[in-house]
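TICKET: design request
STATUS: open
ATTACHED STRUCTURE:
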């Protein structure tokens, strides 16, 4: 797991400010961090976040952490790169719903942001610079140094015997055939549909999600319909592998998945607070 993707520090610093800036949204009431809570898991605690109009978005919000390591973005894998993702997030009505004239007026007129753009890009903020700054920050949203990473680097005591047994089972029954690579997923498509919890949903091809930090990113699946990780593991084994796991096998795989929780800026990721709950 890389600890850096070489993002320019000055540009990433601008992107961090933009990621939390509600002024970029249509209603001035939401920012990227509203749904992608990087103070916790990079996602949110609800099955589906609400649009600016108060209706649920079509899919569960994926975590922003390690997204830069995925070969495509979005549950359907229909977003080719971080650049396209930022454009959609800023301007689509179901997300921030901003407009480029207003976004650029905001950043160009800001006494902090304007000189930062000039210093980092050698010009006033424009559309490409705003997108690049957000992307530069997103490339810093990596969570290395999970216990599994430390074990792979040779620390034999980083995971327990039970977790190692869960890893062996994870590989042995075929989970690792899709959830593999540096991001433990995120680089393949898979046909799904059997296990989803929306009754009238048909099978479709989705991007295999990364399992990094999966222990803190409930609820699960693209509809956010499964509340717990053990249930998600059980359903995935049935739907994708044709296996009915015993409770002990489910517990073993869940134990292994818990070793994939990494840290951001030295702080282990945690599950986001439930809606209305106070932040610790």
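STATUS: resolved
RESOLUTION: sequence designed for all positions
ATTACHED SEQUENCE:
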């Amino acid at each position: 797991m890389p600890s850096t993707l070489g993002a320019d520090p000055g540009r990433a610093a601008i992107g961090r400010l933009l990621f939390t800036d509600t002024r970029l949204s249509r209603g001035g009431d939401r920012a990227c961090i509203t749904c992608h809570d990087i103070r916790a898991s990079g996602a949110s605690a609800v099955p589906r976040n609400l649009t600016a109009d108060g209706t649920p978005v079509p899919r569960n919000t994926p975590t922003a952490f390690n997204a830069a390591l995925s070969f495509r973005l979005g549950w359907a894998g229909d977003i080719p790169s971080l650049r396209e993702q930022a454009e959609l997030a800023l301007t689509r009505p179901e997300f921030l719903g901003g407009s480029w004239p207003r976004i650029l007026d905001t950043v160009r007129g800001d006494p902090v942001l304007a000189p930062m753009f000039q210093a980092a890009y050698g010009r006033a903020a424009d559309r490409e610079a705003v997108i690049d700054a957000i992307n530069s920050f997103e490339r810093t949203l990596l969570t290395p140094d999970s216990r599994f990473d430390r074990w792979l680097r040779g620390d034999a005591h980083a995971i327990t015997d039970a977790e190692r047994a869960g890893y062996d089972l994870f590989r042995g029954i075929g989970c690792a055939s899709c959830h593999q690579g540096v991001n433990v997923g995120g680089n393949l498509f898979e046909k799904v549909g059997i296990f989803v919890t929306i009754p009238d949903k048909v099978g479709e091809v989705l991007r295999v999600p990364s399992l990094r930090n999966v222990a803190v990113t409930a609820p699960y699946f693209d509809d956010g319909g499964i509340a717990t990780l053990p249930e998600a593991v059980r359903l995935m084994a049935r739907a994708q592998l044709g296996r009915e796991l015993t409770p002990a096998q489910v517990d073993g795989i869940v134990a292994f998945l818990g070793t994939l929780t990494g840290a951001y800026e030295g702080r282990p990721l945690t599950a986001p607070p439930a809606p209305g709950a106070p932040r610790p």
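CLOSING REMARK: Residues 193-199 have pLDDT under 50 and may be disordered. Strands lie at 189-192, 204-207, 263-264, 267-268.
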